[in-house]
Fold each of these.
Amino acid sequence: MDYTKQIKEIAGKLFSEEKIDVFIGYRNSGFDENQVPVLIHHYQDVDQLVFTEKSVFNLTNYLKYEHTRNKRVGLVVKGCDSRALNLMLTENQVKRENLYIVGIACEGVVDEAGQKAQNCLECVMPDSVVFDEMLGTPSGKREYQVNADIRELDGKELTERLTYFEEVFENCIRCNACRHSCPLCYCDKCCIDQETSTLYHGANTTSSAFHALMTWSLHLAGRCVDCRNCEKACPSHLPLHLLHKQNEKVVYENFQEHQAGMIEGDRGAFYKYSMSDPDDFIM
Amino acid sequence: METEVIEKIVSIEKPHLEAPPDWQPVIMGILCNWCSYAGSDLTGTSRIQYPPNIRIIRIPCSSRVDPWFIIKSLQTTADGVLVSGCHPGDCHYISGNYYARRRFLVTKKLLNFVGYHEDRVQFSWVSAAEGQKFANVVAKVTEDIKKLGPLRLYKKENS
Amino acid sequence: MNLTTYSTDSAGLQAFYEAIINAHETYAPVEKFGKYDFKKVDSLAGCDPDSPIPQTMSVKSLFFPKSAKVMKYTATSEGTELSDTTEDPLAGKRVVLGVKHCDARGLQVLDAVYKWDYIDTDYEKRRENTILISPRCDQAVTHCFCTSLDYDVENLDAMDVAVIHVGDGKVYLQARTEKGKNFLKENNKGLSAANGAAKEEMKKQYDKFAGSFRLSMDYKEINEKMQDKFDSPAFEEVSSNCVSCNTCAFVCPTCHCFKISDEKIRDKGVRYKSYDSCNNVYFTLMAGGHNPRPVKYRRWRQRSMHKFVYYKERFGVNLCIGCGKCTISCPVNISIFEVVNKVVNTMQE
């Protein structure tokens, strides 16, 4: 998967036709084999752009910041990124007419070890769902499968799960990197930011981590697109995907197979309802 | 129970954690203003007896319940949470409880996933006319929580 | 100071570690979710004193924990009663194994700020009661540049006891401080005094290590040129892809900003001191709503200027120690090395 040449061409064309103010893509870090997201403002910088299977970070995250607000933006999106973008569009965070979207028919990105990333193995929609231009051959929607880790944990006893998650919360240092790197956590003042709400725990304790991660994942339930930006950002390498995948599973199984951001204009699972939603757990 | 000294977070929630002899559970009752709160009122005016363990908070609609209300309650003093609203179709705001229903399910399942017993958080539909049902619901929740014992997990440390 | 040096082999070192763990309260890197953090250990099996550098969190958490109790209070009808917190869990006599050299150096840098003006007694006590046993690195990893900063890395004064693997399974243990000397004297079972070749072999090991660095810079030049770069447009450029996630400050061995918060239920509460980060948008938010650093580049400017200019001016040493932890943890791989170099080399209009 190497679309470096095409992306350079597209970005160059967009700048020369003055269709965009800023282009968001990836460049080689120059220090290691990783890639760094880059915001390009001028035609002459277009040559930095690359796109390979190491282009991991979800770029829609940058649409939250002041650099791109009210500007015409071109950006590269993979399948999962485009689903996040779809939700941002639906939730009126960005304007479609300000965006030029280069969609990718993604073949999966690699993780730190160089293996195909776990979320790519379970990807339900590798192709960009919203785009102005598509690179690669779309392979179409895939069947949903329950995450292997979730299946494994589900088979365990309650107390085992408790001990496992206790370690997760204990190792959290409350840096909030998960919330900041999530494209769908676009609130200026997040309810898990410790400074803005006295209702929340101010200290970086385990109870604070429990509260924050649980609330955060529930606010993303039915919206999370499994791009795993949060997990990449976590300095303690916590398995944050477990919380999201669990919610995704419950949402998929119970709410008409809802999958976040698949269809343009489709809102998160908690923003709509059906008369036939399960009711048996309520007295 | 009240503001109990919890120096270190106790590691494992046992189904039958040994409770002090005089222990009584604290249950947070989050009730919708239009049905369940009126229902609980009816319970009182009808002189129906129900366990005094519940502490009631009135909210405008069951869809006002953000999942963190539940988490926060469990982290401070509550051993269990009961959220109650109007029956489907009866919502004062037309569809609030339909939205709430979805959130409740996901919240309940996630809490269970991270190791809380399912019965810690319970939901009910109680209308303004169901005084007896409210009493029954509170009795059942109290019974369930008593069986589970005190909850000490991830409590906010304040001493 | 007359340095006490012992020599042993790999098995002897394991036995030495084992003996320490049995006799003292010991902290060592413990792996969890692929990341090593310093935790209390009971046996050598559960920990790894030679944990890989990129996956190891900084040892700062044992001296400046992510969250520590400052005091307790109870509100009564007569007023507020204050009381000291219960015993500080980190204040006891303890030994820390597997501290990376950059971490140990970071503590030395931190001493300056903690022992200046107001003396942080908690920190001081924790430092005093701790013996750092620390293996010298054999190989620099991708983002290391500690040899480029104002500290002679060959000098091991930041550690109490230095562990040097010189190859062929041979290991030297060298006491670098008075504390370390006494400690080694008490725990020298199975160790033999080193012979004359020790110095030479250690030097050789260092040369090999120093040769493995990819990154190098001239810190003097950076310190000097950064001073008038406050208005540099380069900050805007380098910070444009930052996501303000705070990770860099939380993993940094020398970042020491904290916030104070109260955890309270009804009338009882505890005051906590927890990590904070200057990359956090709320860091400079004042009561009344004014925020002098509302945008990313200003926060990045503060961060890099503090690391390379302000701290140097005040304490004569750079706050950055070149460990590369921030770059490794950064979700978008921003490197402080790259940032400062870019800022210094960007022409100002």
Note: The interface with chain A takes residues 32-35, 37, 57, 66-67, 142-143, 215, 240-241, 243-247, 249-251, 259, 261-263, 272, 274-275, 277, 280, 282, 285, 295-296, 327, 329, 331-335, 337-338 of chain C (CB under 8 Å).
Amino acid sequence: MSERISVVENIMGANDRLAEDNRARLDAAGVFAVNLMASPGAGKTSLIEQTLPRLADQLRLAVIDGDIATSIDADRAAAAGAVASVQINTGGQCHLDAVMLQQGLGQLDLSQIDLLLVENVGNLVCPADFRLGTHKSVLVASVPEGDDKPYKYPGMYRGVDALVINKTDLLPYIPFKMDYFRRGVEVLNAGLVTFPLSCKTGEGVDAWVAWIVENVQTFKR
Amino acid sequence: MHELPVTQSILEITLRHAQEAGATRVTDLYLVIGQLASVVDDSVQFYWDVLSKDTIAESSRLHFRRVPAEMQCLSCGTRFPLDGDDFACPSCQGVGVKVVAGEEFFLESIEVDGGQASPPNEGGNA
């Protein structure tokens, strides 16, 4: 005798529930967390290096770094002034998920932190599908990647709360059509707040840092 | 996406619901996948055959229902299907749009043998 059972359960539900736990834990500790995503080489770690010194006198910052291997990024974050930095080696997995963030949070004294930057594994596909429980998701794009990336990786561009366009100092040397790039972004994520900047020259970084500060202040209220 | 962890999750959900229903065998699964949820049917099917082996779901059939992507223009309100990879509104060419359908990814139902949850059926052998 065959029988149909209604299930209606989200396949990503287990990860999503853990992400909610992570969020509750961050909220309880008063830690504002940002998930930084980008392709490899876009400048996530450079952005962290530019961001930390500008905030060090007003916020206590920690960094969780997801990488397939090495602690190079966590070491760079520590050198740039993070009160704590944790390296998560994903052992081949191409994205962080809620379980890995949970483990990372366990290695931090959250009561000593105001802002947590989570550097996801360099990848424009998979990180978009796995919620972590952070408060904001930020994509770091960069000029040398090309202006067609919003069109090719819609899932990533659709899901973020802010967009950094790094390496603007290379615009004179690369055929990157900013209008074409921005149209692709607008279609996927109308009104997305965008920060063109250069981690090399420092141009534009202050506006990005101001956005972070504003978000932390709103969160703490 | 990640068809291996995704398929593991499908198996976990399936076995949990089958067990709750007291089923002895799972014969069919009905999955709903939105056009924008980047899941590859063939890949899920491949992992399913491997992972479901030696469980009560072995040899069960996967049925995929695809939900086409539907967008809504934030300027003029027009709802339109996603055509190719251009998300712009066909009525006003507006580029501010939101997704109203196509991101689904869930297990809708399963078909099992030996469940106890069937309504009592006089003279039946459920």
Note: Chain A is about 35% helix and 25% strand.
